[in-house]
Amino acid sequence: MLGGGIALAAKTIKSPPAPRANSSRHSSGAESSVLDAVKLVAAGLGCALLCVGCLWWGVASGYLSVVGIGVVGFGLFVGVAPHAVPATRWLLQRDWS
Predict the structure, then answer these.
(1) Residue 42 to residues 5, 36, 69, 95: CA-CA distances in angstroms?
(2) How would DSSP label each residue in 55-85?
(3) CA–CA separation, 68 vs 87, rounded Å?
(4) Angstrom distances, CA of residue 14 to CA of 18, 41, 79
């Protein structure tokens, strides 16, 4: 497996760079990507639901390890929330016509 990884890395380094296509609208920074904002908001909500579910399940059944997974998930949610709130606000205020 190590040999395959080294061979893949060597092939990647030696290969010529791929030609670039036309840049998309949001690559200039003028417009944010809607798909990225939707994925961020969905990931934040999914993480919040999963950590609440893990905390509930761990406390109800007495599994300390599941409570730990819920606490770690809550930590990830705390990291995502400051970025997801403005993305949600931007999605709600966006003109979809």
Answers:
(1) 33, 10, 20, 20
(2) HHHHHHHT-HHHHHHHHHHHHHHHHHHHHHH
(3) 29
(4) 12, 39, 38
CB-CB contact of 56 with 69 (8 Å)? no
pLDDT at 55 > cutoff 90: yes
Q: Span 37-55, mean pLDDT?
A: 90
Cα–Cα distance between 64 and 82 in angstroms, integer?
28
Q: Please give the Cα distance from 11 to 78 (Å, whole number).
A: 40
Residue 12: its pLDDT value, please?
A: 75
- Tokens standing for residue 30: 């003028």
